[in-house]
Amino acid sequence: MDHEFRVTRTKLGRYYISIPVPLDVKHPIQQQQPNAVGGGDNQAPTVAPHAAAAIDPGVRTPFTVYSPDEARIYELGANDFGRIRRLCHHLDDLVSRTTDRDVRKKRRRRMRRAAARMRRRIRDLVDDLHRRAAKWLCETFETIIYPHYETSNMVVGKSKRRGLHSKTVRAMLTWSHFRFKQHLLHKIREYPSGCRVVLVDESYTSKTCGGCGRINHGLGKSKLFWCEQCGFRTDRDWNGARNIWLKFLTEWCNGSSRGNDDDDKEQQQQQQQ
Predict the structure, then answer these.
(1) What PANTHER family does UniProt report for this protein, alphabetically (predicted)?
(2) Which of 42, 63, 228, 236 has the greatest number of beta carbons closer than 10 A?
């Protein structure tokens, strides 16, 4: 073996071997065959490479993708929310039972190990979605518009002050959108001539009407966006993804997106180091 490697063992008794390998640089995007994301009803159809896509990270649907070339919406991981939520409920129930005073020490230890396995299961499912989504995006689009989406800043404080219910916060943290962004920035290194990521500000993209531009301050948790001024109706996440694209175009025309490109290059250089 040409490089040093490392073997690690987790608390659950799982062994991992870490071996550095050369970066597998893909051919230009025109020669790639996009793969589907998800399974069953959650599959993203195979499409020819397109110029750009805007992504709206969310809770009900982890990644809502708007393709302006097709004027089409892709919902990645839409059917995974229920499965992850059920596992989280089982985990909460198991953790609550470990605090019961009537539970003996050996049984409590087994329950804690079972809870750790369930957390690992949830993490594996989320990571699997991240990997398949990033691969599909890189092979399908040349430019990926992704918001900064700082989840850690959104969930700080009590529910009344932050404006988010604890269940929403739980889902946002479970989907690990920041970790997906880091994985996506790492993945595009395999497509140096065919894909790039541009980070943009997503503020007010969900509340702004895609028809007339009016801001709906009373949107709240509603899944349906409805504008009282022009009567525009659409799915909340669909509206957000499309508005992220429109906001990117506006900033690009004004020249402010060039700074975002520089930020992307800095992040990619840090990852290469």
Answers:
(1) PTHR36172, RESOLVASE-RELATED
(2) 63
